[in-house]
Design goal:
This is Porin. By secondary structure, the protein is mainly beta. It contains 3 helices and 25 strands. β9 and β10 form a beta hairpin. The longest helix is centred in the N-terminal third of the chain and has 23 residues.
């Protein structure tokens, strides 16, 4: 009898348990509703989102001649003039080489909730290039290898109108149209380079045509320092920002544009012991074009204007003395152009680059010359560069050997800051290999 009661209890318990589980198990209709709810949650745009990007980049460079450079020969500008010793040997004919990873980079793109009906996005980007050069006097290392701010921007985009504020590219540097060289110089001396604090407004007239207006202030890259000036004092002393206007056309295969810029800087507030409000006023004009398809990428760029020093180009301004003793200023004129043609192959992509820049001087009668490309009584007349590269790409890994030749013509300084007698052509051959792993 006891066994029967126990068996009956077990059977009843099993039936109750199965019934309870059946009630807990959702029906097909309920399961479908739950799945639809989960899918809706997934497809719902996130209010906040962020993504990290960047690369590890290593470069080995060899130069056949001493050159004007930045950051321990990582970035070469132009070969130095002939410098003869007592035996008539050119001291600057010595070579140089280095192995660096300071151009490795990291950045964050992020977005948040809409602001006043506009899509809100932002960017912060840095590398390890540093902001200051090796100090030869104190044998210090400067800031090479330390973190350097490149971009820090926020953008509000209403569709036809977009506003960006923060630090980003100079507006004369076109992100879609810059040299694709393997060298970190990115075509510097022939193509503008650098970042500045700015407010940028883009107005789209059609999906292809837009106007870009920018006001900015120089920061890391700036004009030369006049007598009595310090780094960036010309920018700080000026009440006006630099004004830039650009008309751009862009479709699937073509990017093209023209632009103009006006800059007014005040190098010092005191000259010869007197208060000074003298400005160096300059303008520049540029044009660019890019055509690309699944096989080839062709880019062209040209710029001409005064005081292009802040764009890391040759030139600057000259100082003249008034009867009162106060120094006033005029910009030197520089012109440059370049062309870059490359394969758009996904695995192996060869490319070639050619660039040329010319110093056209300034009015005669100057007392001081504040420009890049002058050394004592010698000055650059022109610089040209030709290079060839091949990129070997596999997923996010990239190896690019490149051969580059940069030639410079030096001459005695003329009264108008152009190169005159005793001209000398010098050249630097650079062989380099760049290795990158992107993320």
């Amino acid at each position: 009898m006891k066994r029967f009661v126990v068996l009956l209890g077990i059977t009843f318990s099993t039936i109750v348990s199965q019934s309870a589980r059946a009630q807990e198990t959702p029906s097909n209709e309920e399961l479908l509703k739950r799945i639809e709810k989960l899918e809706a949650e997934k497809s719902k745009p996130k209010e906040w989102d962020a993504s990290i990007y960047g690369w590890v980049r290593t470069e080995y460079n060899f130069d056949s001649r001493q050159s004007s450079y930045s950051r321990e020969y990582n970035l070469n500008l132009y070969p130095l003039d002939e410098k003869l010793d007592a035996n008539g040997k050119d001291i600057n004919s010595a070579g140089a080489s280095n192995f660096l990873a300071i151009t490795s980079r990291v950045g964050i793109n992020f977005k948040g909730p809409d602001v006043w009906g506009a899509k809100a996005t932002g960017k912060i980007e840095a590398d390890f290039f540093g902001n200051t050069e090796l100090n030869k006097t104190t044998a210090g290392t400067g800031s090479t290898g330390l973190l350097r701010l490149r971009h820090a921007t926020a953008t509000l985009d209403w569709g036809k109108t977009a506003v960006t504020f923060g630090q980003t590219w100079y507006p004369s540097f076109i992100p879609e149209v810059f040299p694709g060289v393997a060298n970190f110089n990115t075509g510097i001396m022939f193509n503008p380079f650098g970042w500045a604090g700015q407010i940028r407004v883009q107005q789209r007239f059609t999906p292809e045509l837009s106007f870009i207006g920018v006001v900015y202030k120089d920061r890391e890259f700036q004009t030369a320092n006049a007598t009595g000036a310090s780094a960036n004092s010309a920018t700080f002393n000026s009440a006006l920002p630099t004004f830039h206007g650009q008309l751009q056309y862009k479709n699937k295969n073509i990017v093209a544009g023209i632009a103009g810029e006006y800059q007014s800087l005040q190098p010092v507030i005191e000259s010869g012991g007197l208060a000074s409000d003298q400005k160096v006023n300059s303008a520049n004009f540029l044009g660019y074009f890019k055509y690309s398809n699944d096989k080839i990428i062709t880019k062209l760029y040209g710029i001409t204007g005064g005081n292009l020093h802040h764009l890391v180009m040759i030139g600057g301004f000259a100082g003249y003395t008034e009867p009162s003793g106060i120094e006033y200023y005029k910009p030197t004129k520089t012109s440059a152009f370049w062309i870059d043609v490359a394969s758009n192959h996904a695995k192996i992509a060869p490319g070639v680059f050619f660039g040329y820049t010319k110093n056209s001087g300034v009015d005669t009668g100057f007392k001081n010359l504040y420009m890049r490309g002058v050394s004592g009584t010698r000055v650059l007349d022109n610089v040209w560069r030709a290079s060839a590269r091949v990129e070997f790409k596999q997923n996010k890994f990239n190896i690019a050997p490149e051969l580059e030749y940069t030639a410079a013509k030096w001459g005695d300084l003329n009264p108008d800051a152009t190169a005159g007698n005793n001209s000398k052509d010098v050249g630097n051959f650079r062989g380099m290999v760049r290795v990158m792993y992107s993320f």
